Amino acid sequence: MSLNRDDLIEALTYLREAGVNLVAWPDGPIDDLSLPLDLSPAEAVEYVTDPDGVVARRCGVSVNDLIAWREADGKYRCHAITCKGKRCRHVVAGEYWYAFERDPAKWASFERLGRCCSMHGRAAQGERP
Ligand SMILES: [Zn+2]
């Protein structure tokens, strides 16, 4: 079966106008917390070949941020570098990480702040305690 993009969009638009929703369940940090995404007919067609691109655009983040959000389990982690040269794995205290698991844009904006856990205080990113 070979349909061109415009024919697909036309068919999906027809279905949508009849009340059929186009909902994707993209991968989230944790399977049962994935977010339902209501797609337009054009997004649905694009989603087939570039799901991360569609999700990232809809969430207002880059594809790299989306992937990093998943890899961090949606949790906002300390930015200090340990004496072993690895990034501290502690979740930053006082931050409502539950929201980060559902919102990659919120996660990415906090990630840029470079905050640290209570053990590492306010050490700047890359600074060794
Ligand atoms: Zn830390």
Report on this model:
The chain has 2 domains: 1-59, no CATH class; 62-129, no CATH class. Helix content is 40%, strand content 3%. Helix 2 (41-49) crosses helix 3 (51-59), helix 3 packs across helix 4 (63-71) and helix 4 packs across helix 6 (104-111). With 129 residues, the protein is mainly α. The protein starts with a helix and ends in an 18-residue tail after the last helix. It is built from 6 helices and 2 strands. Residues 78, 80, 88, 90, 116-117, 119-120 line the site of zinc ion.
* Alpha-carbon Rg, integer: 19 Å
Helix-strand makeup class:
mainly alpha
Low-confidence stretches: 123-129
Shape: elongated
* Hetero ligands: zinc ion
Number of helices: 6
Oligomer: single chain
| Main sheet: strand order | 1-2
Total strands: 2
N-to-C series of helices and strands: HEEHHHHH
- The fraction of residues in strands falls at under 5%
Instruction: Please indicate the count of domains.
Output: 2
Mean pLDDT: 84
- Helix content, binned percent: 40-55%
